[in-house]
Amino acid sequence: MFEIVEIPEPTTVRTADGRIVGYYAFGDPQGTPVVALHGTPACGAGYAWADERARARGIRLLAPNRPGVGASEPWRLGRAPTVADYAPELAAFADALDLETFSLVGYSGGGPYALRGAHALADRVTAAAIVSGSGHVGAWASIDDFETSDRVLTRLAARTPILARASVALSAYAARLAPKSSIRVAQVEMSAADRAVMAKFPSARAALAVFSQSCRPGARGVVDDYAILGRPWGFSVEDIAVPIHCWHATADKVVPIRHTEELGSRIPGARLTSWADEGHLAIVDRVGEVFDALLQHTPR
User: Fold this and answer.
1) What is the mean pLDDT of residues 243-250?
2) Long-range pairs for 199-208 at CB < 8 Å and ≥24 separation?
3) Which of 98, 158, 166, 276 is 20 to 30 Å from 59 by CA-CA measure?
4) C-beta of residue 73 within 8 angstroms of C-beta of residue 17
5) Three-state DSSP class for 11?
6) Which residues lie below 8 Å from residue 174, measured CB to CB, with a gap of 6+?
7) Which numeric CATH code is attached to 11-295?
């Protein structure tokens, strides 16, 4: 069980090149830094349920929003971004908070970005945890593997981004206006295991903060996130030398466990743990296990 005292609000930091990054801070402010990368459609507020367990382990849990999501400034590339393009964004965020070294958690759609951080920032990333991570579309994964809503939005984001933004914005508005109704709609696609996890949140509004806060300035950043996950990542996971530990639930309806099994077979020395009969939200109950594994690789 976990506790969320209140719905978190983001903090912002300005990077050396002037970019604004919105992020959420949980756990022990003086603790060992762990940077947690959110899923899609989501933002860093989604790690509020990990606060107690991070604090108990002496972890400073920092959850930045990706470009265009929540309080974070949009991409500045002038072209369609890829997962590979996130490495300098992550490095700039770490620099702004004076993090010399840190470990990473990448959950669901955040998994590819955590892998990129481990790939490009091997001198700073001590280890990475990939939990229910989305696979590399076009390599060992397909958009057809995802559940219906994610499958539709990933395709819309690539083909008709204006329509995708309208759809996501409408859903976010409904989540803020009528959270109980929005939860009921979301539960239609959920497994029984995930519905049980959702029932542990103190309120529908708290459960939906991970989504509703992602669209505060508009839906463009969330839709960009969908589009990016449907493109080639732009790097090879086979080249990762940082310790990688993957977790995935066997009854995950959102991202099939096959994605993580394939990932683990491609990264030298990667470890894979499966959670039997649990769903996509298993991390909410199991995050302490994930933190403990990361701390084994982190000087304290």
Assistant:
1) 97
2) 200/1, 200/2, 200/284, 201/4, 201/49, 202/3, 202/4, 203/179, 204/179, 204/180, 205/7, 205/179, 206/4, 206/7, 206/48, 207/179, 207/183, 208/175, 208/179, 208/182, 208/183
3) 276
4) no
5) strand
6) 181, 182
7) 3.40.50.1820
